[in-house]
Amino acid sequence: MDLSQARREVSVTEATDSWIRSRYGKLLHSPKFRVAAAAIASALTWFCWAYWANREVPEQALMSGLFQGGVNLLTTAFGSALLESLFLRLGCSLGGRVCAVAIVSTGSLCMMLAAHWLASTPNVLLTVLPVYAVVVLYCSSYIAGLQKIKTKYESIEVAVQ
Q1: Model pTM?
Q2: Who contacts 102 (Cβ-Cβ below 8 Å, separation ≥6)?
Q3: Measured between alpha carbons, how far is 92 from 100 in angstroms, rounded to an integer?
Q4: Share of the chain above pLDDT 90, in %
Q5: Contact 79, 104 (CB under 8 A)
Q6: How confident is the model at residue 57 (pLDDT cuts 50, 70, 90)?
Q7: Three-class DSSP labels, the chain
């Protein structure tokens, strides 16, 4: 590949990125869209996982997948909103952030266990534990992101004044 061809490819890539940003920029910056997209992705991912984890009992696999997908849809949507609220109420101290993650992830675990108890899921631990690990990681990342936004906002405020 010569230099002019490489420049053309970079130019096309930049034009495509610019078109996507101009078309979908507001949508991608919307907290509601981010929460909805995360909730849908979570529901689909964990539906598939629960179905696979319980595939030895086909009549239960679909039910377990539907319950896990539904629980993850709700817990991701409500959990993200709750994390935002707890971050504001408990403050941005390390203790407040840890408490927010613990509250939301424990609530999610309780909902998952209750749903699988109702669904009579045969492999509850195999179904729930990987999801719970990702829930804790998601909550921690979400709180870290909120802290980063807060820090950036405060530094901008100081720089403007």
Answers
A1: 0.68
A2: none
A3: 10
A4: 27
A5: yes
A6: confident
A7: CCHHHHHHHHHHHHHHHHHHHHHHHHHHCCHHHHHHHHHHHHHHHHHHHHHHHCCCCHHHHHHHHHHHHHHHHHHHHHHHHHHHHHHHHHCCCHHHHHHHHHHHHHHHHHHHHHHHHHHCCCCHHHHHHHHHHHHHHHHHHHHHHHHHHHHHHHHHHHHHC
Measured distance CA(82)–CA(86) in Å, rounded: 6
Distant-in-sequence, close-in-space partners of 65: CB < 8 Å, separation ≥ 6: 47, 48, 50, 51, 54
Q: How many CB atoms lie within 10 A of CB 152?
A: 10
Residues 6+ apart with CB under 8 A from 85: none
Residue 12 has pLDDT above 60, yes or no: no
Read off the tokens for 140.
């921690």
107 pLDDT more than 50 = yes
Query: Of 144, 125, 145, whose CA–CA distance to 64 is shortest?
Result: 125
